[in-house]
Amino acid sequence: MRQQTFQKALSRMTEAGFRLFFVASLLFAGLTALYNPWLCLAELILIFVLYLYFQTGINRRRKEVMAYLDHMTSGVDVASRRTMISSPMPIVIFRPDTDDIIWSNERFLHLTGDPDHLFETKLSALVPSFQAQWLLDGETLSPELVPVGESLYLVFGNLVCTGGEDEFLATTYWVDVTPYAQAAERFETTRPVLGIVQVDNYEDLGRGLEESERSTIRAEINRRLTEWLEPSQGMLCRYDRDHYLLLVEAGQFQKFCRRKFSVLDEVRQVQSPNGVAATLSVGFGRNGESPKQLYQFASLALDMALSRGGDQVVVRDGAEFSFFGGRSKEIERRTKVKSRVVASAFSELLASTDQVIVMGHKYPDLDVLGAVAGVCAIARKMGVSIRAVRAPSPYPAEEQTKQLSLLPEYQGVFVPPDEVIHLARLNSIVVVVDTNRPEQTQVPELLTSGARIVVIDHHRRAASYIEKPALSFHDPYASSASELVTELVQYILDTGDLKRAEAEAMLAGIVLDTKGFTARTGSRTFETAAFLRKSGADTAQVNKFFQNDLRDTVTKFQIIQGASTYHGTMAIALTDRPVGRAIAGQAADELLNIAGVEASFVLFPEAGQAYLSARSNSNVNVQVISEMLGGGGNAATAGAQFPGKTPTEVLPMLQETIDTYFDDEV
Question: 79, 311, 358, 460: which could form a disulfide with 279 (CB 3.0–4.6 Å)?
Fold first, then answer.
């Protein structure tokens, strides 16, 4: 009896709306008989055929649903099956492969606004935003909330095989979570975001001015910051002469991100009477677990912005960094005080150890070799054992490394990576030069060996960097790592302690990164070069380090010959033959000598992947472009690598990235 009642209830749901259709059709045929009996007969035959067709479909669907429910509720009494039909939760059964609805309860019909339950309706027609792929992937919970009208639903579901190997029916249960979703959205949009603002060049703005003029500049900066923040109803508080603290809700903060933090451009319009434009560095912290952690995030973000050259915004969101701005040309802001302090701290560290291990980035160039030579000279002066990582052949500075290894002081200094790992001890000091990214070091395992870490680098800091070193000498305004190490050498070594070959290696590193003192040079660059010259460096010998053989020279000019311009001022060259990083970099440098070219890009293959070498001699920041492609560097020299891709495949990616770079400037 209960089984019959259950089947009757199921019948009412599968036949909903069709009986009324046939009754109306019969009445219409009866009216037709008054005027044309033959037409009436034809209509009756058509109605009978349609009835048979619909009844067959209904019976088939009823059997499918019954078989499915029997499978789902095997061993459960009829009352439980009845509960499924009259469930207060919307339920729909459909074929995930064709999207055809087999059955749904009344609540789902009212949910979709289709109480008549159209025959053979597809679920996507009723709920366009619903995707069934997660069910086919074996998941039981939809990855995203499904909007239906003005409501949001969390959908649970499962698949059941109904016959053949690929014949499935899906049952989904729809839970209205609109109030909870709205509460979650309010929570997210009202979470606090903390920012620390620093005026980069506060001292330069006020140098040589009267106090009244300084006050006018401060007031103008305050006004522009306040006007920028006012629409967001945020809080701005100056807690030092050149530092501000600001607090804003996450929803308003997203608007700042979409506008690329226009405050950078607005404040840059403030100029002192001597023509110096004000610039800001801003660090934001968000999604911290406490106000204290928010402040820590903001402080780290500000440090990141300053280490990348300033005039930009850095956002620390949990463990992720986002960068905005930072495209203006870097201005030297260096003093000898920092170098002297770092030299003193470095000497104290070396005095507390009996072993130093020095390494640079993968495929070390002349700048790495110069910095390594300087660190070796300092360690020798302090009486500390020194080991340097020797890169696998080939690499750009291989020949010069061999020449340096011939010196008596360098016997046994260069060791292969697999040996140096076993040398590290807790008391050791690992010095990393010319990179601050752990994944780019020659032996990343040394960073987790327990040894104390020292970082000496001039590249702008990227999202991944060596955290918590014992000592960091990081200066993005320096021309090269060799320049930074030379400054330490001046304070630690005595006259005559530096070998001629070491001085030449360090000078070669500076010449390489400054392109022969034509790019990224400051007054300190020439001071360090003069010191190295006094220490015995022969410029003629240094020049020989950069000589190529005839084959490499021809290869370089073949790359240049195949170059083309993009965006009018971008030169892009592509080669499908391995040419080596040094030759590709030289080709990129040569392209900058072409009139009208502001930045150059060379794509080339090596070791089964594509590489990019980028150069700039203008306001085009190639580091920003390279970072969009997963690389890094500095504003004038940068690069990237693309595992598993060819230069031809990377070319459209590079062009799209350049388009994005210039679109963001508009």
Answer: 311
